[in-house]
Amino acid sequence: MKSYFWGIFLISTGVFLLIKHYFNLNISTGRVVIGLFLLSLGVSILISGFGVNTGDRILFREGTFKYEPAEDEYDAVFSEAKLTFEDFVPKDKPVKVKVNCVFSSLDLVLPRDAKVYIDASCAFGRIDLPDGSSISFFGDHRFSDNVDKNDADLIIDLSTVFGKTEIRR
Q1: Which of 7, 29, 45, 152 lies deepest, with the highest CB count within 10 Å?
Q2: Contact yes or no for 127/165 (Cβ under 8 A)
Q3: Considering just the CA atoms, what is the radius of gyration of the chain in Å?
């Protein structure tokens, strides 16, 4: 993420100090610098946005995660996100992943050639599952590819709160 904050702040503070000393103005430097700090922060947020988009977390942004074997939890908070398991390779034992969708819209794309078990929980939201069923407002639902939880290749613990999650293959 590019941040213009320091550039805007330092340039505007320098211009202020030059004008103050060139014209010999009697202005409170501390108050103006604090004002320029807040103004620079606001302009920086407007220009470059405010949020985080890392490998396992998207906050206040729009973005895509891809499954990484090293990650076991993914969070989408105040965002519009897509999580894909296209690089998922089944292992000898089930892989457990926790997915949290809070105040967000999440598109979850499952792997095509893996047995999946999903334990979905919803509060004040909606979850659309691949078999056509859905959870609206409150509820829990279990989805599987006709396998027991211990026989699945991928186990997803999904929580959606004040959001919408659509799961598809």
Answers
A1: 152
A2: yes
A3: 23
CA distance to 8, 51, 53, per residue, from 5 (Å): 5, 14, 18
Tokens matching residue 64: 């895509």
Nearest to residue 79, comparing CAs of 65, 96, 67, 98? Answer: 65
In angstroms, rounded to a whole number, what is the distance separating the alpha carbons of residues 119 and 41?
41
**pLDDT per position as a tens digit, 70-95:** 889 999 998 999 999 988 988 888 99
Beta pairing, strands 80-84 & 62-66: parallel
Which of 101, 105, 94, 144 is closest to 121 using CA atoms?
101
Q: Which residue from 156, 154, 153 is spatially nearest to 121, judged by alpha carbons?
A: 156
CA separation, residue 47 to residues 35, 51, 54, 136, 142 (Å): 18, 12, 20, 37, 43
Do residues 162 and 127 make contact, with C-beta atoms less than 8 angstroms apart? Answer: no
Q: Helix, strand or coil for residue 36?
A: helix
- Domain locations in the chain as residue ranges: 5-48, 52-168
Distance CA 15, CA 46 (A): 22
| Helices 29-48 and 5-22, axial angle in degrees (round to 10) | 150
Please write the tens of the pLDDT for every residue from 2-32.
567 888 899 999 999 999 999 999 999 999 9
